[in-house]
Automatic annotation (TrEMBL):
The keyword Isomerase does not apply. Binds 1 FMN per subunit. Its EC number is 4.1.1.36, 6.3.2.5. GO terms for molecular function: phosphopantothenate--cysteine ligase activity; phosphopantothenoylcysteine decarboxylase activity. The keyword Magnesium applies. In the C-terminal section; belongs to the PPC synthetase family. CTP binds at D100, K110, P127, D128, I129, L130, F145, K159, K163. Pathway: Cofactor biosynthesis; coenzyme A biosynthesis; CoA from (R)-pantothenate: step 3/5; Cofactor biosynthesis; coenzyme A biosynthesis; CoA from (R)-pantothenate: step 2/5. The chain holds residues 180 to 401 of 401 of the full protein. Catalyzes two steps in the biosynthesis of coenzyme A. In the first step cysteine is conjugated to 4'-phosphopantothenate to form 4-phosphopantothenoylcysteine, in the latter compound is decarboxylated to form 4'-phosphopantotheine. This is Coenzyme A biosynthesis bifunctional protein CoaBC. Residues 6-215 form the DNA/pantothenate metabolism flavoprotein C-terminal domain.
Length: 222
């Protein structure tokens, strides 16, 4: 991987989960470790890009070569940070597992048990970061991720279209792959093609992914 296939390009990567606070001590989160997104950020930097990494709550060191890291907690914070740094970027890779919903309100004090009664949490839908970028007149080349437990290809192709993405990296979650694991396997889809990146360490996979993104970027934007 000697080729600096992203030399001179600005790349923004989002990674990790989001935490949506319920009260001062509780939140709704997900099982994303941030490893895939951090590996992608590192691979993009190795490929010569100027990388900004927007990270949800993870315990990972900033990868070598990453120019700037912004730590956020909630989907709303991630949305704001990405919107700000993406101006002037050439490629946005949304590898974060953004929470789809957040509690309607964050309780000021710790919620108490209700003496055996059910507790109902009202949730509001979070903005879709990728889709909101795609809706802007001028936006970077957009790459999304789709972590699915079933119907991987049809869900991924649907997301590619619906969110207005240039490429989507789909992985099957489960069976020792996906969240909280060292390995992953990805199928990449774009409007008129696809590529299989078989099971490998996330760092290896990230380099292959960056190579593919660079070629497709050059084909449609170069
Ligand atoms: O719809 P789903 O969450 O499966 O889509 C996954 C892709 O969309 C990921 O690239 C993720 O980062 C992005 N996404 C987003 N904003 C959201 C939800 C997902 O950018 N609110």
């Amino acid at each position: 991987f000697g080729d600096r296939v992203l030399a001179g390009l600005k790349v923004v990567v989002s990674a990790g989960p989001t935490y949506e606070d319920i009260d001062p001590v509780r939140f709704i989160g997900n099982r994303s470790s941030g490893k895939m997104g951090f590996a992608v950020a590192e691979a993009a930097a190795q490929a010569g890009a100027q990388v900004t990494l927007v990270a949800g709550p993870v315990s990972l060191a900033t990868p070598q070569g990453v120019a700037k890291r912004i730590d956020v907690r909630s989907a709303a914070q991630m949305h704001a940070a990405v919107t700000e740094v993406v101006a002037g970027a050439d490629i946005y890779i949304g590898a974060a597992a953004v929470g789809d919903y957040r509690p309607n309100a964050v309780a000021e004090h710790k919620l108490k048990k209700q003496n055996g009664l059910d507790l109902t949490l009202q949730l509001a839908e979070n903005p879709d970061i990728l889709a909101s970028l795609a809706a802007q007149q001028s936006h970077p080349f957009l790459v999304g991720f789709a972590a699915e437990t079933q119907n991987v290809e049809s869900y991924a192709r649907d997301k590619l279209q619906r969110k207005g993405l240039d490429m989507i990296a789909a992985n099957q979650v489960g069976g020792g792959l996906g969240f909280e694991t060292a390995d992953n396997a990805i199928t990449l889809y774009w409007a008129d093609g696809s590529a299989e990146l078989p099971r490998a360490d996330k760092a290896v996979l990230a380099r292959q992914l960056i190579d593919r993104i660079a070629s497709r970027y050059k084909a449609v934007r170069g």
